[in-house]
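Extended Data, panel c. Modelled sequence:
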Amino acid sequence: QVLLVESGGGLVQAGGSLRLSCAASGRAFGSYAVGWFRQAPGQERDVVASITRSGTYYADSVKGRFTISRDNTKNTVYLQMNSLKPEDTAVYYCHAGRGGTDYWGQGIQVTVSS
């Protein structure tokens, strides 16, 4: 069982930055693939960035602006978001997965004003 808790969201002006954190409980967290997803009103939840055994992935819409990282000593995953745009406004979810089992955080709001 893995419990994920996001923090660091909020309201920011376009062009600003935010860093999301996802603190995980549970054992062997370093063996999990991790990622960040987001869901805007009326839209599906889409992947933003992930770290898996195959490497690091970014959605085209955030390449060059967002950076995902993890610190396994702290059981924490980060999403550094720079040059934020109004279209980045969404609820952001932390995800961890291993062996076909998925875990999700409760979600955190990010709002970018123009």
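The chain is about 0% helix and 55% strand. This feature is highlighted in the accompanying rendering.
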